[in-house]
Amino acid sequence: MGSGSVLKFALCEALQFAGLCVPLFIIVQRFAVIVARVKTSAQPPGDGHTAYWLIVASSVAYVTTVALLVWVPMKYMVFMKKKFLLRKKWRPVALVYVVLSTLPCFAVLIASSEVQINNNIQSDTFTELPVSLVLFSLVCIDIVERIPAAPSGPGTEANGTVPGAPGRPGRPFSVSGLSSNSAGSGGVGVYRPQPYGYNGPLRFLCAADARADVFADGFLFWMDTVEMVRVAGLPAVYYSGWVFPIYIFSFLSCLRLVVMPRSVLLSALGVALQDLPFLFVRIGLIAFFGFVTPVLYLMKNLLVCLAFVYFNFMTKLRFLNTERMYF
Fold first, then answer.
1. What is the pTM of this model?
2. Which of 79-83, 84-88, 124-128, 148-152 is predicted least confidently?
3. What is the residue-wise DSSP string for 144-182?
4. What is the rounded distance in angstroms from the CA atom of residue 313 to the CA atom of residue 326?
5. Buried (b) or exposed (e) across 256-287, using 16+ Cβ within 10 A?
6. Is the peptide bond before 44 cis (omega within 30 degrees of 0)?
7. Which of 104, 121, 135, 168 is most buried, judged by most C-beta within 10 A?
8. What are the DSSP calls for 238-287, one per residue?
9. C-alpha span between 47 and 39 (Å, rounded)
10. Given pLDDT bands bounded at 50, 70 and 90, which one contains residue 236?
11. How far is CA 158 from CA 4, 68, 204, in A?
12. How many beta carbons lie within 10 A of that of residue 12, not counting itself?
């Protein structure tokens, strides 16, 4: 392994470990501030300073324990290529991150809301930042895990183009073109045809690279979850019981990260863990709070669920099967 490879490996590992630790520290510190204010304003007033440092120390102890007992041994086994951790259908690093980082973060966010509701105070002033950190860390973990596995295609050149036949220019290569299933959630596979080669003066604009597609798909994969947790940050929703279904179903949607990007299970999991639960949650939010969530996402969840059922189950019926219409 050359010096450049070692540097990239160290950078990726540091980025993943920071994604594991930083959101936890920030969210727990924010929760500690809320608890300290509650203790100070209580009757009789308690020791908010002691409560603050106890909570912060607990977060440091938790991260240290997770790093030493779970994260480092797992990364060592992955690096040593243990067979039971190198299955092609799931990603162990993503599973550990979702269970040991995302789940505690969402639990602390719910606890922060409940503490303020029960004590009739509203001292939280930056609800959007912690959620953005959690989801950005998820995106980073996803991208770092997918970049080494991004296919380069047979005969792919350094700029990501596939050489064509003699006398024909190479055509751009797209990672999404290798599979009929898009990286985003949903039950309907989308095939995006490859663009034809172009040999004009603007041919440099036709250059494509699978790694750039990984970055784009990595963010698009989480847009629905981002919008859902954004709604939880609104004061009317945050200081109500609706934070429970929002964060619970948002966490369930994060479990899709464990499945490999081009797995055949991704479509069904996208419907079961995201689109169907989000559909009912958004209907309830609009009924209780008005249009706090865009109707566009509601229609997306509805259409994806209907399309999944129709194309996977209804078309198997004889009178709906267009292939048998004339036989």
1. 0.76
2. 148-152
3. HHHTTT----TT--TTSEEP-STTS--EE--GGGG-SS-
4. 20
5. bbbbbbbbeebbebbbbbbbbbbbebbeebee
6. yes
7. 135
8. HTSTTHHHHHHHHHHHHGGGGB-TT-TTHHHHHIIIIIHHHHHHHHHHHH
9. 6
10. confident
11. 17, 39, 14
12. 16
Q: What is the DSSP string of 198-240?
A: --STTGGGG---HHHHHHHHHHHTTHHHHHHHHHHTSHHHHTS
Cα–Cα distances in Å, from 215 out to 15, 66, 184, 221? 15, 28, 12, 10
Task: Say which DSSP state 99 is in.
Answer: I
CA distance 167 to 117: 71
Using CA atoms in the order 297, 302, 305, 311, what is the torsion angle rounded to 10 degrees? Answer: -110
Mean of the pLDDT values across residues 38-50?
A: 78
How far apart are the C-alpha atoms of 250 and 53, rounded to whole Å?
A: 30
Contact 242, 288 (CB under 8 A): yes
181, 262 Cβ separation under 8 angstroms: yes
The amino acid present at 224, given as its one-letter code, is: D
Ordered by start, the domain boundaries in the chain are 1-130, 179-188+209-327
- Angle among Cα 232, 237, 243 to the nearest 5 degrees reads 55
Do 161 and 190 contact (CB within 8 A), yes or no? Answer: no
Contact (CB, 8 A) for 105 and 97: no
What does the DSSP assignment read for 8-65?
HHHHHHHHHHHHHHHHHHHHHHHHHHHHHHHHHHSSS---HHHHHHHHHHHHHHHHHH
CA distance 269 to 264: 9
Residue type, 258: V
Please, are residues 192 and 213 in contact by the beta-carbon 8 Å criterion? no
Q: Which of 134, 94, 89, 120 is nearest to 250 (CA)?
A: 134
pLDDT in tens, 247-264: 999 999 999 888 887 778
Angle at 244 between CA 243 and CA 246, to 5 degrees: 65
Nearest to 119 by CA among 48, 37, 33: 37
